[in-house]
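We emphasize that the prediction below concerns an isolated chain of 201 residues; any contacts that depend on oligomerization or on bound cofactors are therefore not represented. The input was used exactly as deposited, without trimming of termini.
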Amino acid sequence: MPEEIKGLLEKIQREGIQRATEESLKVINEAKGKSAEILAKARQEADLIIEKAKEEAVKTKDSTDSALRQAGRDFLISLRSEISSLLKGVVRGETSRALTPREMAGMINLLIKEYAKGDSPDKIEVLCSKEDLEKMKGFFLDRLSECIKGGIVMKPCDDITSGFIISFDSGKSHFDFSDQSLADYISSYLNKELAKVFNLK
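Result of the prediction step, given as a token string:
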């Protein structure tokens, strides 16, 4: 009987060890399966995070590049505007200096003579600054007035600092040779050239 008990105990022990081993292997295999599943899921999530990070990096780079291009363009536009204003001031100053009363008298004289070749105007009106008006009167008015039916009327104009405006139809239309108008005209040409330098439309 003791041998039977001993055999029974050994059998129980073997079966217990075998069962424990099987259970351990089962737990180990389940753990391996779960860890592989967790690892695969973690890799998938990591890949998604990396992909999103790459997309964000591209968006950020594109956004930064776009912002830099816009900032560069804004700077060039601002610089062009500053240079244009400076240029206009220089042009206006030089135009004012060039439009001396003697030069203006010569221009008016030439304009009237050329216009009178086609048709003798009824009345010519010349607007200029009060200061230039006094200086120009002696240069040509007496001689030219005799050639024109309606004569030449010289008027001061507060809006003109230098240069003149002339009308051959009693003020219905006019030709503007004021420093402001000439500076605008010259500046518009120079601004087109400036735009080419800055490559802006």
